[in-house]
């Protein structure tokens, strides 16, 4: 299996979200997602903030060394870590998305911002370091975190959009690699899970079944791996 170029995976992840939201009208953008309380437009606003954060981070190089990598970055986002802060962010995102005259206005901004973030990622020094959310990361590790979040939220977006495209293979591999890194060393994911099922269960979007718990054994207690 060929190695993944992180900037290409991020571009594909963002293109995948664009392919989901571009055909939607205002009604379609007000369908529910897997994120509690968020409509498609609300979640798109959240991912738009990520793309904007990527632009800021990539334009703000800092000296190393990194204090987290593409896996350890997520350990601060374990379920139940700060429920009050999560609730405040969810409400802020809803109100911010609702400030647009029409939900399709968000799609236009996303369609400008996401490709710009992907171009900035392609132009960034792969040996460089950047800062975001109080951490210093290597550029490829930052891009992997952004890709992982985009893929998981892509799956969140399409829960009521059965005809929408699924995330592409390379970004999905990045997200799966993240989840593998968060699992304890001795754990093996159940053989019956495909990649998307793994991501949904690893992030708590879909609960573990009794069979899952049997196959995971003690590792079932680690789920969800992140929120």
TrEMBL record:
Signal peptide start and end residues: none
Domain Mycothiol-dependent maleylpyruvate isomerase metal-binding: 11-157
GO molecular function annotation: isomerase activity; metal ion binding
Keywords: Isomerase, Pyruvate
Presence of the UniProt keyword tRNA processing in the record: no
Gene3D superfamilies for the chain: dinb family like domain
Record-given protein name: Mycothiol maleylpyruvate isomerase N-terminal domain-containing protein
Native species: Micromonospora humi
């Amino acid at each position: 299996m060929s190695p993944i170029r992180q900037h290409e995976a991020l571009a594909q992840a963002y293109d995948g979200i664009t392919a989901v939201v571009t055909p939607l009208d205002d009604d379609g953008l007000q369908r529910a997602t897997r994120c509690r309380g968020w409509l498609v437009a609300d979640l798109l606003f959240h991912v738009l903030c990520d793309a904007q954060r990527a632009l800021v981070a990539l334009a703000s190089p800092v000296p190393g060394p990194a204090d987290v990598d593409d896996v350890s970055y997520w350990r601060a986002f374990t379920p139940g870590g700060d429920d009050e802060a999560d609730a405040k962010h969810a409400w802020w995102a809803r109100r911010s998305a609702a400030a647009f005259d029409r939900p399709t206005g968000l799609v236009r901004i996303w369609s400008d911002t996401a490709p710009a973030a992907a171009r900035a990622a392609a132009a960034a020094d792969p040996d460089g370091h950047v800062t975001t959310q109080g951490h210093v990361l290597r550029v490829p590790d930052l891009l992997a975190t952004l890709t992982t979040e985009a893929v998981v939220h892509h799956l969140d977006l399409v829960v009521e959009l059965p005809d929408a495209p699924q995330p592409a293979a390379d970004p999905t591999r990045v997200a799966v690699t993240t989840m593998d890194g968060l699992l304890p060393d001795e754990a093996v994911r159940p053989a019956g899970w495909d990649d998307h099922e793994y991501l949904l269960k690893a992030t708590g979007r879909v609960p573990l079944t009794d069979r899952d718990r049997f196959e995971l054994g003690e590792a079932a207690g680690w789920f969800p791996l992140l929120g």
